[in-house]
Description:
- The chain is an alpha/beta fold and about 130 residues long.
- The chain has one domain (about 1-125): Methylglyoxal synthase-like domain (Rossmann fold), CATH 3.40.50.1380.
- The chain has six helices and five strands; from the N terminus they run βααβαβαβαβα.
- It has helices spanning about 10-20, 25, 35-45, 60-70, 90-100, 110-120; strands at about 1-5, 30-35, 50, 75-80, 105.
- β2 (about 30-35), α3 and β3 form a beta-alpha-beta unit.
- Bound molecules: 1,3-dihydroxyacetonephosphate.
- This is Methylglyoxal synthase.
- GO terms for molecular function: methylglyoxal synthase activity.
- Pfam families: MGS.
- Belongs to the methylglyoxal synthase family.
- It is an enzyme of class 4 (lyase).
Amino acid sequence: MNIGLIAHDGKKKLMQNFCIAYRGILNKHELFATATTGRLIEEVTNLTIHKYLAGPLGGEQQMASQIEHNLIDMVIFLRDPQNQQLHEPDIFNVMHLCDVHNIPLATNLATAELLVKALERGDLEWREMYR
Length: 131
Ligand SMILES: O=C(CO)COP(=O)(O)O
């Protein structure tokens, strides 16, 4: 499966800890992240991440394009509800496209944990039929 990972600055530490905790599941999949999120995950895990541009430089647009091409199977986007981002339209577009294409999307830790456990159980294998 191809997994998209993005974290707002206020949630990057949480993303690192999430990836440390679930690296044994995540390392069986292809991981894609915006540049800073991806670099920070690589710094604390042995995971290899395909990195887009940084979010404010268009990284979310790159992920959005991959979603539109049916190349992303699940997105974990740890959002910081306290801080509005300057590139909010790009962020909204990623979430919008997940809804358009019925891609599982977690925007907080509780749902991210549910999704990654579902991934381990094989609950998302129906995605392969849509390729
Ligand atoms: O900007 C982001 C979230 O909106 C994420 O991008 P970075 O991972 O490059 O910081």
